[in-house]
Specification:
The chain is mainly α. The chain has a domain of 159 residues. The chain is built from eight helices and two strands; from the N terminus they run ααααααββαα. The protein has a two-stranded antiparallel sheet with strand order 1-2. Helix 1 packs antiparallel against helix 3, helix 3 packs across helix 5 and helix 3 packs antiparallel against helix 6. The longest helix has 42 residues. It is elongated and about 95 Å long.
């Protein structure tokens, strides 16, 4: 039997190498797709009404916010825009090859969730966090890691209330009422912008039928009379 020629051997080796590379790329693509779907599923669990607006415990609300921001950050590291990740978490899939894009005003509850997650993700990036392994690992557990660098480096951010539970009991269990801020934010007086944000949240929660009109009036009156507790 005649031995294979060097050219044949090289050709077969190149062919096998191509198959190996294609297989590895396909495997990585599959794993990435699976992780993306897992991220969207976890976000969908957090953004459903019973979770986002009616947590049993304040601690769970805070952990859920941190987990959600961590999931958005991980999605961003996979090349998925934050707004797209939030949409998929809300069960809204991207439309292709169609002119039927949404131009109508989104439901109030969706708008509240989008605003909360978007603002907290922006705060996450402004504090200097990156979606590295240690940061994401900590946030999967519902824990904010220390700030990586800058004047507040090494310190842990705080989660503040837009509307104090002292004004409206139970607001500490509403994820939409929570905001990630720099350390010592609890000791600072709320700015006019933060007060305006709290008032708008009260109005939006009323429009979404999460709270009653009389509760909204009580909140607005309290916010107008004195600085909101954090």
């Amino acid at each position: 039997m005649e031995a294979p020629s060097p050219q044949y051997i090289l050709t077969r080796a190149a062919y096998l190498l191509v198959l190996l590379v294609v297989g590895l790329i396909g495997y990585k693509s599959l794993r990435k797709h699976q992780r993306e779907n897992a991220i969207f599923a976890e976000l969908e669990t957090i953004t459903n009404d019973s979770s986002f607006f009616q947590q049993f415990y304040a601690t769970d609300a805070r952990k859920s916010l941190v987990k959600a921001v961590g999931l958005i950050a991980e999605a961003s590291s996979l090349g998925i825009a934050p707004e797209t990740a939030i949409s998929r978490g809300l069960g809204i899939k991207q439309q292709f090859f169609t002119d039927e894009a949404r131009h109508d005003e989104p439901p109030v509850r969706e708008r509240i969730i989008r605003s909360c997650l978007r603002n907290n993700y922006v705060n996450f990036t402004k504090l200097g966090f990156k979606p590295d392994f240690h940061t994401l690992d900590s946030m999967r557990k519902g824990q904010l890691p220390p700030i990586p660098s800058g004047p507040q480096g090494g310190r842990t951010p705080v989660i503040c209330y837009l509307i104090s539970p002292d004004i409206s009991p139970g607001m500490d269990k509403v994820i939409a009422n929570l905001e990630i801020r720099p350390p010592d934010a609890n000791e600072e007086k709320p700015t006019d912008i933060q007060l305006a944000e709290a008032k708008q949240l009260a109005r939006d929660l009323t429009d979404a039928r999460i709270i009653e009109d009389k509760v909204c009036e009580k909140i607005l009156e309290a916010l107008s009379q004195k600085p909101a507790d954090k």
